[in-house]
Design brief:
alpha/beta; Nucleotidyltransferase, domain 5; about 500 residues; 3 domains; 19 helices; five-stranded mixed sheet; single chain; Lambda Exonuclease, Chain A; globular
Length: about 500
């Protein structure tokens, strides 16, 4: 019988096919950049947890990747007898193994804390705690309690490496201890899945993204019959529509009844099946006619730190570090300004000052999805009261191109998306994000920024990352200029 780790059991809870692939075909797994970033944040939060729970640094860290699993389990038993705080204490029993994030002496018993980088307790965290408590208790550990520590999103970092208060605990002792038989059942069922010669036959669905994004999704989808025009291209599907699709096993867009679709969905279906774009250009021109040039086209790049880096900021706060502004004059000539701070310091004040200077005092400020930029500007105004009037004045001038595109334009190549990366190649086929070197999307921009501000990054590499970031953000705003040109029918030049 194979001993299954806690992560394997949680993979089973998500999808038995995922567990089978994790064991028998791990090379097929393709984790996204977002997933890898989440792993990195989790490791960082774990490091901070050791500071919080062991300020005197009396505890011991076990690393099975370095020590080996057998040695890790043996050293755990030694440290239990020594009554020292243990981080990553390892336990193996009844066909399962688990490593506890934090194990603290509590009289003659022990207090266990599982540390998560989320901002609340999720249902799958409860499963996690149940497995953790089961394996430890099966090894004879007298657990007094088990808690889940998660990030407090309302906490503000005071600076100087002081992270007391970053984590808050939820006591899961009663429910975790009560699920012993349930966990035994998971282990038995998971062992049966692993013993199969072939993977379970399960269609892709909601389980592929919840509670975790599954790295085997592309593999599983490739093995399924491919619809010519997939039903998942329908945007904003209602629960009734989702239920109908699932009940009737519909994958082809043509098989969805029109009376279940709203006008936007009907437009997507019609354009997709006909292969002809929908473009009400007179309507887009009229929608923009009142917004006279000169105009400013702006886009921001932001970073979120689960563990705040800068004093006065909160966990997962959206912090702008870069902007691009294209100014379009009355003659149709565009000029460009950019801001990018890779010093590693908090760029907030310099960002706000530069943005005010770049956007002038009058003229429309075009964005694509106004909620994002206007929220960031409002937050900057709250953070920098001396610039508040000027920043709020920018928000008062904002014109959102997204609803205009969504209402009056759709090309079959968009596949149900109105992101600027989907609309741009349809309207301006000579412009492509995938032609950019390196950074091609917001997630990659965040990763490039993190690498660039790392002290160990070499000067040549930092310069290359800077070039990539500037090129990417500039294309975002030049794309908006070109969309404006297509919508209004007026030529532009750079």
């Amino acid at each position: 019988m194979r001993t299954l780790s806690k992560s394997k059991l949680l993979a089973f809870r998500q999808c038995p096919k995922r567990l089978w692939l994790e064991i028998h075909a791990p090379q097929l797994r393709e984790d996204s950049g977002a997933t890898l970033a989440n792993y990195a944040t989790g490791h960082q939060v774990g490091d901070i947890a050791r500071q919080i729970y062991d300020p005197a640094q009396h505890g011991q860290l076990i690393d099975p990747q370095v020590e080996g699993f057998d040695e890790a389990f043996a050293r755990t038993q030694t440290l239990l007898r020594a009554r020292q705080p243990i981080f990553e204490a390892g336990f193996r029993a009844e066909g399962a193994l688990a490593f506890a994030d934090v194990l603290l002496p509590a009289g003659k018993q022990w207090r266990m804390v599982e540390v998560k980088s989320s901002t609340s307790v999720k249902d799958y965290h409860r499963d996690d705690a149940a497995v953790q408590a089961f394996v430890a208790r099966a090894c004879g550990v007298p657990l007094q309690s088990i808690a889940l520590a998660h990030i407090d999103s309302g906490w503000t970092y005071p600076g100087n490496g002081d992270y007391q208060g970053l984590l808050v605990e939820a006591d899961l002792t009663e429910e975790a201890f009560a699920r012993t038989d349930e966990v035994r059942g998971w282990i038995a069922d998971a062992q049966a899945v692993v013993a199969r010669k072939k993977a379970p036959r399960l269609a892709t669905g909601a389980q592929c993204s919840a509670p975790y994004e599954c790295g085997f999704l592309a593999h599983c989808q490739s093995a399924e019959p491919q619809a010519e025009h997939h039903v998942r291209w329908l945007p904003r599907r209602s629960q009734a529509l989702k239920a109908h699709i699932e009940e009737h096993g519909i994958s082809e867009l043509r098989d969805v009844p029109d009376d279940l679709l709203n006008p936007t969905q009907q437009r997507v279906k019609a354009a997709t099946l006909s292969g002809q774009a929908f473009f009400d250009q007179p309507a887009t021109a009229q929608a923009l006619a009142a917004h006279k040039l000169p105009g400013y086209f702006i886009d921001f790049e932001t970073i979120q730190f689960g563990v705040p880096l800068w004093k006065g900021t909160r966990p997962y706060q959206q912090l702008p570090f870069q902007f691009s502004v294209h100014r379009l004059g009355r003659t149709g000539r565009a000029t460009h300004q950019a801001f990018l701070d890779l010093s590693g310091g908090n760029p907030s004040l310099a960002f706000a000052q530069s943005l005010v200077a770049a956007c002038g005092e009058r003229g429309p400020v075009f964005v694509y999805n106004a909620a994002f930029e206007t929220t960031r500007i409002r937050e900057l105004a709250e953070r920098h009261p001396r610039l508040a009037i000027a920043l709020r004045a920018i928000n008062d001038r904002v014109v959102d191109l997204l609803p205009i595109a969504r209402q009056h334009y759709y090309h079959p190549s968009q596949q149900g998306s109105w992101s600027i990366k989907a609309v741009l190649p349809a309207l301006c086929p000579e412009l492509h994000y995938d032609a950019l070197d390196g950074v091609q999307d917001g997630g990659a921009a965040q990763q490039a920024y993190l690498e660039a501000i790392t002290p160990a990054t070499s000067a040549p590499r930092k310069a290359e990352l800077e070039r990539q970031l500037l090129a990417y953000c500039s294309l975002d705003t030049w794309a908006m200029v070109r969309l404006w040109s297509a919508f209004t029918g007026q030529p532009v030049r750079d």
